UniProtKB/TrEMBL annotation:
Molecular function terms from GO: mRNA 3'-UTR AU-rich region binding; NADPH binding; quinone reductase (NADPH) activity
A Pfam family annotated for this UniProt entry: ADH_N
Protein name, entry field: NADPH2:quinone reductase
Coiled-coil ranges from the UniProt annotation: none
Enoyl reductase (ER) domain segment(s): 12-325
Keywords: NADP, Oxidoreductase
Species annotation: Cryptosporangium aurantiacum
GO cellular component: cytosol
Length: 327
C-alpha cells in the first residue's frame, strides 16, 4: 500500500477508523518528515473515537510514535536532526496513525542506540506522564509508601518500576486477581483488589495507622472515596484520569473532614512548558529504558491498517501491557 493515514471521520465504533491514502508535502520551516516505524496505542485515542473527548472532525489520531528522519525542512538556527536519525515524539496530537508525517522539530527526541523504535513508542508518552506525576506533581521520596491505582495498566507498570528504583514502597491496585502477579513483577510491594478489598485499611496497616502521603488515581469515580480515605492528614490525591467515569458533585468540605486533604488534576502539558523541558524529561525516561530500569512490557503489535481491531482489543481489556501499531 502507498502511504496512508488512519482517519476518524465521525465518532463511533472501531469500524469508523479507515485508511486514507496521503501525499505528505516537503517539511516546512522548523519541521521534519518522519518515516514511522511504531505508533503508540493509547486509551485516549479510544476516547476521541467514541466522543468522550472532543476532537475537530474529521481528524487523525495518535500523538506518540517513533521512526526515522526522512527529510528536514528549512531552519534559521541550524538543523538539530539529519536524514537517517532515529527519533521519537509524544506530544504532537492528531496524526500519529500514519506511515509518514511532518512533525515540529522541537517535539522530536533523539533515540539512544539501546532503545528500539517499538520500545520508544510504547514507553515515551506514558513515561513522561509518570515523570510528571512522581517527580513534580508530588515528588516522592525514598522510604515513602504511596498508592498507585491501575497498577497493571500501561502507566501503572512504568510507575511501579520507577517507584521501586527510587526506593519507594508502592501499593498498587488492580481490578482483577489475574493482574496481581503482573503488578508485583513490575515493582509493587503490595497489591489490592480495589473492587473488593479495603484499600484504606491496607494503607493504614502498612503505615502504622498514619495513611499514605499521596494517591495517584487514573480510575476516577470508582476509587475517589477510597483514595481520600487512604491518605494521611494533608495528603495529596493526584487525580489524572477517569477510566471508570469522572468524579462529579464533590462537596469540598469532605477534604476538611478527612484531614485537610489536597486534590489536584494535572495535565502533562503544564509540566512540559517548553522544548527544553520536554527534551530533558524525555532523555531521563529513555535513559531509564536504555539501562533496563524501565521495561516497556510491549505485549501486542497490530498492523496500522488494523487500528480499529487494536482499539477494540484495548477497549475490551483483551490487551496486557503496551501495544503498538506497526505501519
Amino acid at each position: 500500500m502507498s502511504d496512508y493515514a488512519i482517519r476518524l471521520p465521525r465518532t463511533g465504533g472501531p469500524e469508523v477508523l479507515q485508511p486514507e491514502l496521503i501525499e505528505v508535502p516537503p517539511p516546512g520551516p522548523g519541521e521534519v518528515r518522519v518515516r514511522q516505524l511504531a505508533i503508540e496505542l493509547s486509551y485516549a485515542d479510544v476516547m476521541y473515537r467514541c466522543g468522550r473527548l472532543d476532537a475537530p472532525l474529521p481528524t487523525g489520531l495518535g500523538s506518540s510514535a517513533a521512526g526515522v528522519v526522512e527529510a528536514v525542512g528549512p531552519t534559521r538556527r541550524g538543523a538539530r536532526f539529519a536524514v537517517g536519525d532515529r527519533v521519537a515524539y509524544a506530544t504532537v496530537p492528531f496524526g500519529a496513525y500514519a506511515t509518514v508525517r511532518n512533525v515540529p522539530a522541537d517535539a522530536l527526541i533523539p533515540l539512544p542506540e539501546a532503545v528500539t523504535a517499538e520500545d520508544a513508542a510504547a514507553v515515551l508518552a506514558k513515561g513522561l506522564l509518570v515523570w510528571a506525576l512522581i517527580r513534580h506533581v508530588y515528588p516522592v521520596q525514598s522510604g515513602e509508601t504511596v498508592v498507585f491505582h491501575a497498577a497493571a495498566g500501561g502507566v501503572g507498570l512504568i510507575a511501579g518500576q520507577w517507584l521501586s528504583h527510587l526506593g519507594v514502597r508502592a501499593i498498587g491496585t488492580v481490578g482483577a486477581a489475574d493482574k496481581v502477579r503482573l503488578a508485583v513483577d513490575n515493582g509493587y510491594d503490595e497489591v489490592v483488589l480495589y473492587r473488593t478489598d479495603d484499600l484504606a485499611a491496607r494503607a493504614r496497616d502498612l503505615t502504622e495507622g498514619a495513611g499514605v502521603p499521596v494517591v495517584y488515581d487514573p480510575v476516577g469515580a470508582a476509587t475517589f472515596t477510597a483514595s481520600l480515605d487512604a491518605l494521611r492528614p494533608r495528603g495529596v490525591l493526584v487525580s489524572f484520569g477517569s477510566i471508570s467515569g469522572p468524579v462529579t458533585g464533590v462537596d469540598l468540605g469532605i477534604l476538611a473532614a478527612k484531614g485537610s486533604l489536597y486534590v489536584t488534576r494535572p495535565t502533562l502539558g503544564a509540566y512540559l512548558p517548553d522544548a527544553e523541558t520536554l527534551r530533558a524529561a524525555s532523555a531521563e525516561v529513555l535513559d531509564l529504558v536504555a539501562r533496563g530500569v524501565i521495561r516497556p512490557n510491549l505485549r501486542q503489535r497490530f498492523d496500522l491498517a488494523d487500528a480499529g481491531k487494536a482499539q477494540e482489543a484495548l477497549e475490551s481489556r483483551a490487551t496486557v501491557g503496551a501495544t503498538v501499531l506497526v505501519p
